[in-house]
Amino acid sequence: MSDLLQRDSQFVWHPFTQMQTAPEPLPIVRAKDAVLYAADGREYIDCNSSWWVNVHGHGNEHIAKAITQQLETLDHIIFAGVTHPAAVELSERIVDILPANLTRVFFSDDGSTAVEVALKMVFQYWFNQDISRHRMLALDGAYHGDTFGAMSVGQRDYFNAPFEKFFFDVDFLDFPVESNHTHLLSQAEVLFSTNEFAALIVEPLVQGSAGMRMYSPTFLDALTTLAHKHGVLVIFDEVMTGWGRTGTLFALDQCVEKPDIVCLSKGLTGGVLPLGLTVASDEIYTAFLSEEKVKALLHGHSFTGNPLCCAAALANLDLFAHPMTFENMARIAHQHALFIGELMPHSGVVEARQLGTILAIELKDPTDRAYFSNIRDVAYAFFLERGLLIRPCGNVVFLNPPYCTSNAQLDQAYQAIHDFIETLSIPD
Ligand SMILES: Cc1ncc(COP(=O)(O)O)c(C=O)c1O
């Protein structure tokens, strides 16, 4: 065991990891564009953009320059009672690229806190007006983060079982598929008609942790419209779908009916520094204005509006203003579609799905074969051997690569996915 791994095993507690049985972590010492360099000199393509964050790849010079300049000017400053140019410019530019009704930007640290803030906003919106609306509606299979509020509106399963009794009550609608749209909408109508619902929260168009499950903008439009008809606020959690992943800058760009709150994080800083934003409508913001201090949103974090994070986010916006970013997104989407066309139908695949730069291959899980009982771990190891960092979600192998990933690098990933499926294929 190398010195680094030895020290890691002695002192570090990794996320989502059973420390007793997990294999050694991959020691990565350097990264550039889509490639990660390991301590032993091996190279890996970062096929999942390091948990969806590094949308432009690693070591982007424009982002690095912006952070360096900001560091030399103003590194950090309290954000209560103080403001600074980077936060103000970021707020202006974020409001500019979002739907016209979203006008107020609240800063936090990551995706979970962006969601947590959104939940506090909607509950307090009603509280401040002395209106009793306490119920929340979410979609079955949702994932909105790992803090308590975010867990409450997410799928209840073994990930959060120890905490479940501390969650607030949430109603869940079944995941929308073509055949249940009408049924779900009438269920939602019945629930909303109680006038007890504070808000609806969704991952728009794609549920990530549920295995890249995709649903139509038509359904989301109908659900959002219904919510609005009954005065229910709508939160789009774009933490994962934002920054080009679904083919448009935000998933909401594919919807006609717009949400009242949007949560952003992950690719917001090009994946270089942690930052969360909760962007709310003027109507929500206005409900917090009062002579009474207790009606304010009494929430904040030490790093709220950190200037370095804001500078990285501004540089990210510059990159999205460049046509090259959208050309690369379209190129990757096209390559994904070609791969699906070549792969399907395949006896080892339940379904191949794609939206924008997200490619998901749902594998048949041959649980009757002990070796493959844990398909995710087997696949993960297989791909590492092939120089690819791909973290499947259960039996769903997915790619969401940085937009600088070349066609040759994509081909390397497609070939490995194809070969892995071959190892699984059960003869008819
Ligand atoms: C849709 C969604 N919301 C929220 C989160 C939580 O973000 P974070 O991990 O930055 O706290 C995630 C993370 O994967 C996510 O996919």
Number of domains: 2
The CATH class designation of the largest domain is: Alpha Beta
- Low-confidence spans: none
CATH topology of the largest domain: Aspartate Aminotransferase, domain 2
| Strand segment tally | 16
The CATH superfamily label of the largest domain reads Type I PLP-dependent aspartate aminotransferase-like (Major domain)
Helix content: 25-40%
Structural class: alpha/beta
Protein model, in words:
By secondary structure, the protein is of the alpha/beta class. The protein has two domains: 159 residues, Aspartate Aminotransferase, domain 1; 259 residues, Aspartate Aminotransferase, domain 2 (3-Layer(aba) Sandwich). 36% of the residues lie in helices and 17% in strands. It has 13 helices and 16 strands. The protein has a seven-stranded mixed β-sheet, sandwiched between helices. A four-stranded mixed β-sheet has the order 1-2-3-15. A hairpin with a 2-residue loop joins strand 13 and strand 14. Helix 7 runs parallel beside helix 8 and helix 11 runs parallel beside helix 13. The protein is globular and about 60 Å long. 43% of the residues are buried. The mean pLDDT is 96. The structure holds pyridoxal-5'-phosphate.
